[in-house]
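Re: glycyl-adenosine-5'-phosphate structure - here you go.
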Amino acid sequence: MDVIVSLCKRRGFVFQSSEIYGGTGSCWDYGPLGVELRNNIKRVWWRDFVHQRDDMVGLDASILMHANVWKASGHVDHFTDPMVDCRECKHRFRADQIDEMDWTHYCPATKGNKFTMKAGGPCPHCGARRTLCPSCGKGELTAPRQFNLMFKTFMGPVEEDASVTYLRPETAQGIFVNFDNVLQATRRKLPFGVAQIGKAFRNEITPGNFIFRSREFEQMEIEFFVNPHDRLEDRPADEVWHDRWIADCQAWFTRYGLAAEHVKLHEHGRDELAHYSKRTVDLLYKFPMGWSELMGIANRTDFDLKQHAKFSGKSLTWFDEERKEHVVPFVIEPSAGVDRALLAFLLDAYQEEEVRGDKRVVLRFHPELAPIKIAVLPLLKKRSEIVAAGHDLRHRLTRRWLTLYDDTAAIGRLYRRQDEVGTPYCVTVDVKTVGDPEKGETGDGKVTIRERDTMQQIRVPIAELEHVFGRLLDAGTPWSEVAAGYPRAEG
Ligand code: GAP
């Protein structure tokens, strides 16, 4: 993780929020490359799960909602974590995670020497187990108290109880309260789903592991509404749709780069299930701190729509023409975090390898996710014709694919820089491309394309560049197939 955190800062993927003031440690800013990667993840998710399906539509609900939304959803009463405080150093911990932390111990069997003990284990010298604060090793801990994770704020100019509301802790509720609006506007029949991408806020007691758990993050959520009276494949329709969404989500993450062996499913046991859930399956990723939740796919039943109907007094049903009855749909909810997805894609893409005795760092991003698709690099920046041709190419290519021009170092170093940020293709303009007017030589009008993963190079006429990148970046034609049609260039 440390290597990724340092690369993210150095190359402009992720910065600590308010860093010049010492940072917050719980919020993060996305730099020039991070914002492109993040947008690409969201764009591809939206395209695959909304545009390319005929049973999905989109929504963008507001972050601030009526306070009753959070009473109806159960967040005011139940969205809590048990918290304990150290009476000495005032550190705050989640009571249910405290035994998973390494702990500080002043061992009486070694004249009070200070040790850092492994989580959960006893001291090998005195056999004691942790009872005091794991951080300072001295303070008593308070009894656990329930701490609500929602950020409270006030709507309007008066700070009084009547104007209290919350920053949304999930985007889901914006979809539930708009169920009838979407139904009336689109005349949809069940089953259909509504997708939303947006910010969510949780006052986490222990944020950490870089962007894995922060207080401001973004979610990509789908609420898929199913008629609970329908049957599919001889089973209740909601159960079949739940299985389909689990498979689709797992396939999506591996399609865009996560190794299959780094992703697995976790079935929630009875004691883990949220109060609204009939079944929940988490997609786990093998993060450096261990297998952890990348996303969850829950069967929320009719809980939310019934709650909002009860609290608002508005009917939230769908009329089944065939059975001539009003039904409250069941909801299958695939819910993913943009930040966790980005972290997983970064971790899985990162590779260090040795090339001709040198270390090469490469981010093997799927081309659709790569922040920059093409880098145009001039071989000699002293030659004005080469530089002009490079700028011209960048302008032309960037209309379709984000293209960068860089002439601030020698070509070897420029390639390494692009490898390190995951740019799939570099285009090099050289003397042969433009010729040498002083010697009466005309150029061949060809450039070199270098592919990131194989480092192979081919020589391609400038006139064919857009066609070649259309095949590689839009049609997804494999490099080997495209490269076979052109002469190799030496690196
Ligand atoms: N609507 C259901 C819901 O919000 P969740 O499991 O609490 O379920 C869904 O959150 C996803 O949102 C998680 O799997 C994770 O990817 C992301 N997420 C949740 N809390 C987060 C946090 N504090 N920081 C970053 N991502 C978070």
